[in-house]
Design a protein that fits this description.
alpha/beta; six-stranded antiparallel beta sheet; 30% helix; 10 helices
Length: 328
Amino acid sequence: MASGDATAARPFTICRADAPVPPALAGAVAAIGNFDGVHLGHRVLAESVRLAAAEAGRPAAVLTFEPHPRAYFMPDAPMFRLTGLAAKEIVFAHLGLDGLIVRRFDGALAATGARAFVLDFLKGALGLSGVVVGHDFHFGCGREGTPTILAELCREAGMSCRIVDPVALGGETEPVSSSAIRAALGAGDVTRANALLGYRWFVLGPVQHGDKRGRQLGFPTANVRLPDCGLAHGIYAVRVRLGSGQFYDGVASYGRRPTFDDGAPLLETYLFDFSGDLYGQEIAVEFVGYIRGEERFDSADALVARMHIDASAARALLASDETRSMLT
């Protein structure tokens, strides 16, 4: 288990937007950020906040914002989010922290200057005793606040402040970033994306009714829509957690179904050795490996023949994969 990955038995408190900070997180030391992906760099932040909190005898927490600031400032621009709030809650609960504080990113917060952000918001409203941020952290109206300014303001407020250096994957020089993970997933390189994350990338969503074509072809699928998802269209080896907590291996297609309708992108997952009704259930789909790109076939029979090959390839990839899961 990697450093900073704690047991799931540790109590984890979630304080969602507009809720008062609960006693369990009073006076916490918090890592601050958007944490899209909760990747290896973010996990170093989590480890740093755990150490800082332990030294101070305080709770260790994460402070994040919803909606993502980019979505607030550019609401009409598509944004490929690696982890929505529900996924962040799952991942952070595995990292040995005491809790997650979520605050609404709105016009008032966007207009808050750097000084007020630290003294009035972090210290006054949230009661934090310390913060941990990355080397490139900016805050306050117009992003006027820098890590240096943050450290100065924290000293004035009587708060601790730690600035964490960039984190690179072993043998590389470029820091791990959410942008790099999006680029990897956009190229279908699930293996690299998972390496940068430190766990299998996963998505959550309710199973929706489709046209039942998969059932007719002998491959009934659980269909989930992924808004603004930048994942490369193609076929993937996946592992699926059902709402009941059971896990199944499977093979999934993400794309527009060019053999049939070339419609809106849809994640269609065939679960191996499963029989049942999943409609309306929320499932989690972990991406383990990339098999091939999306193709148009001349006939349904040709597609079915290839689907059997894809299923075999998925089974082989799943049998050899040792990437960490955040869903267990």
